[in-house]
Amino acid sequence: RLLPPVQPKKKSAATTPAPAAVGKNIRNVMGNRAFIKLIYHILRIYWFIFRPRTCGVKCIIQNDGKIMMIRNTYGYKMWTFPGGGIGRGETAEQAIEREVMEEVGVKVQELRKIGEFTIAEYKRDNVTVFTARSENAQFKIDEKEILEAGWFSPKNLPTISKYAKTIISMWGGQ
Question: Are strands 53-63 and 124-133 parallel, antiparallel or unpaired?
C-alpha cells in the first residue's frame, strides 16, 4: 500500500545536527504548519464572503503501476493528488510541473490533460486535471504543506476525498 519515503544516507557524527538544531527545525516546521492552517481558515472566510473565481491544477502521477497521493497539512486532510493554484502568467502545464516539484520534489514527464471540473464550495475553482509519469519512486515532501505522501496501487487506495474520486473517474485507470 504505502511505500515509505526514501531515507537519506547516514551522516557521519561530524555532520549530524546537534539535538538543539533538530528541535529548532521541528519547531520551524510545526510553526509553518500552524501558520498555513491559520491562513487557510482566513482564506475560507474571504472565499465565503467574496466567492472569487480561481484556477487550479491536479495531477495523477504514475510510477511502476502505482499512483502518488498526498495529504495536506490543512483543509480536510484526506488523501488527494498533488496540485495547486495557477499563478499569474502561468499555463496550467507550467503550474502543475511547479506544484508537483514544490510539494513532492518529483519531475513529471509525459504530461497529458485529461479534463476539468469545478469546485463551488466557498469559491469557484476551475481545476484542470493531468496525468504524468515519474521515472523513479523517490520523493521529498514539503513538510509545511504536505503531511504525508505515498505511492498506491489504484486497486488499493486509502480513504480519498470526493474530488480525488472525481479525478479517478476522469482517469479511468489509463
Answer: parallel
3-state secondary structure at position 109 = strand
Nearest C-alpha neighbor of 141 from the set 151, 133, 131: 151
The C-alpha cell at 39 is: 491562513
54 within 8 A of 139, measured Cβ to Cβ: no
Question: Which of 151, 152, 129, 147 minimizes the C-alpha distance to 139?
Answer: 151
The Cα 42–Cα 47 span in angstroms is 9
Q: How far apart are CA 69 and CA 164, in angstroms?
A: 9
Report the alpha-carbon distance of residue 36 to residue 103 in Å, rounded. Answer: 14
**Bigger pLDDT: 81 or 119?**
81
Task: Write down how long the chain is.
Answer: 174
pLDDT at 39: 83
Q: Which three cell numbers, joined as nine digits, stand for 75?
A: 483543509
Is residue 138 over pLDDT 50? yes
Could you tell me if residue 102 is left (phi over 0), alpha (psi between -120 and 50 degrees) or otherwise beta?
alpha
Q: What is the pTM of this model?
A: 0.73
CB under 8 A, 24+ apart: contacts of 40-48 = 40/74, 40/75, 44/122, 47/121, 47/122, 47/123, 48/122
